[in-house]
Amino acid sequence: MGKTKEYSNGEITIVWEAKKCIHSGICVKGLPNVFRPSLRPWIKMDGAETETLVNQVKQCPSGALSSYINGAKDKTTDLIETKIDVLKNGPLLVHGLLKVNLKDGSHEIKNRTTAFCRCGKSGDKPYCDGTHSKIDFVG
User: Fold this and answer.
1) Which of 53, 103, 124, 137 has its CA 20 to 30 A from that of 8?
2) Does residue 62 share a domain with residue 87?
3) What is the CATH number of the domain that holds 53?
4) 128: number of Cβ within 10 Å
């Protein structure tokens, strides 16, 4: 199981699931005062207002970043309609609630954004692990 870290500002908690991260850099480019990969802790919660943090977390293409309101009974995120984005030279992003049927007969429920491999080289198929950027995938 991959590493999971939680960061809180008292109002919300941002959850980072390392295994899901494809290192797209969208969080760093969007809020460089909050998401600082070369520093520890890498997420500085007082670098932006709560609403700004939530909106940036929603932009995470892999679903590695999620958030929940502190004190809420249900820590799941809001469901969104299903939408598919094909990223240039990157993964296929599917937004929404999904049931992924795996080749071994098991299944996983995914909510928000799921990144599927298009380059064929991911070590975590069918999901993207960021290998496309290391092999200069074009597609």
Assistant:
1) 124
2) no
3) 3.30.70.20
4) 28
pLDDT, tens only, 69-128: 887 655 555 545 688 999 999 999 988 778 889 999 998 877 778 899 999 999 999 999
Q: How far apart are CA 46 and CA 29, in angstroms?
A: 17
pTM: 0.60
| Domain extent for 98 | 83-134
- DSSP assignment of the chain equals ---EEEEE-SSEEEEEEGGG-----HHHHH-TTTB-TTSSSSB-GGGS-HHHHHHHHTT-SSS-EEEEETT-S--PPPP---EEEE-TTSPEEEES-EEEE-TTS-EEEE-SEEEEPSSS--TTTTB--SHHHHTT---
Rg of the chain, C-alpha, whole Å: 15
